[in-house]
Amino acid sequence: MWFSRATLYNILQGNVAEARLSTLIKLAAVLDAHPLELIKPYFSDTLSERRLAIVTKDQDSGFLNDVTFPDNSVVLPNEVFIKTWSVLNTGKEPWQDLFLSCQDQTEVDALNDVSSDNQLIPKQTKIPIPYTLPGERIELSVEFKAPKKPCRVISYWKTTDKNGVLLFPEKSPLSCLIKVSAI
Predict the structure, then answer these.
(1) 3-state class (DSSP) for residue 72
(2) The domain that contains 146 carries what CATH number?
(3) Region label for 72, one of left (φ > 0), alpha (ψ between -120 and 50) or beta (otherwise)
C-alpha cells in the first residue's frame, strides 16, 4: 500500500476529508483495526461541513487531539488508566453546566461488574465539563479499567446538558479505543 506522507499525517490527525475511502480501508487492514473506525469520521466530517455551511450555531465543539492513550494504545488486562482528550469551544456561547457522558450501551453492566471480560469500565459515566469560553481549549479526562481478557475495545463519550439531553448530536463522539494485551 502506498500513499503520501501528507495523507498519513492528515489521517493521524483525524482529518480524513481528503483521503480516499479505499485508502482508509487499506490502512485499517494494516493497523488491524475495524474499517468503520477509520471510515466513520470520513462521512461525519463531510456531513458536518455541509451542516455548518447551512446553519450557524451558538454552541459547538471541536475535537483537537488525544492527549493520552491515542487510538490503538496497548494496555494490560485490568490496568487502570486515564484517557484525556483536548477539545475546543468552537461556538459563540460559553459552555456552562455541561457534562461528558458515556454512550456505551453496556456501561451499567460494566459498572456492576456483570460482564467486564471485554468492556472498558469507566470510573464515572458522567464527568463535568468546566466553564469554557468560546475559543477556549480544555482537556477532559476519564479514568478507565481495562477488560480482564485480551481484546480490542472502544468506549464512546458525548456532551450532555445537566438534564442528560444530548448536545451536538451530529458530532462524532469522543472515543477511547485500546488493545488489551497480556504481553
Answers:
(1) coil
(2) 2.60.40.10
(3) left
Q: Look at the chain and report how many structural domains it folds into.
A: 2
Q: Which regions of 72-167 does DSSP assign to beta strands (E)?
A: 73-75, 80-89, 98-102, 121-122, 126-129, 137-145, 151-161
Residue type, 116: S
Element containing residue 10 per DSSP (H, E):
helix 5-12
For 117-167, write each residue's pLDDT tens digit: 789 999 999 999 999 999 999 999 999 999 999 999 999 999 999 888 998
* pTM of the complete model: 0.65
Report helix angle 21-31 to 35-54, nearest 10: 140
Domain limits for position 73: 58-183
pLDDT, tens digit (0-9, with 9 covering 90-100), for 36-58:
666 665 555 444 443 333 334 67
Does 88 share its domain with 176?
A: yes
